[in-house]
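Format notes (please read before filing issues)

Several people have asked whether sequences and C-alpha cells are stored in separate files. They are not. Every record keeps both together, in the order shown below: the sequence lines, then the C-alpha cell lines. Line labels are part of the format and must not be stripped during preprocessing.
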Amino acid sequence: MFGYFTHTIVKVVLASLIVGTILAHFGLTAEDLMQAAGFSTEHLRHMAREGFIWALPNMLLGSLVIVPVWFLAYLFRPPGESPD
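Then the structure lines:
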C-alpha cells in the first residue's frame, strides 16, 4: 500500500512540474491564475485559516473516539497477524 501511495505522489509531483514548466513558458504565473479565478493571496490565506480553525477541534474530538478504538483493536488482534 505504501509503495502505491508513494508512486502516486511521485506521478502527481512530476505532472505538476511539467504543467508548471509549460505554463511558465507561456508567461502565466500563479498570481495571474488566482486573479482570473477571483482570488487574492489574502483571501486564500483567510480561507485556509478559517478551515484550520474549523478542522482542528473536530479532529481532536474525533481522535478521542478513534484512538482508543484503534488501540483496543490493536491489543486484541490475533497473535502472529501482520498489521499490513
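For reference, the curators noted about this record: Residues 2-75 form one domain. The mean pLDDT is 90.
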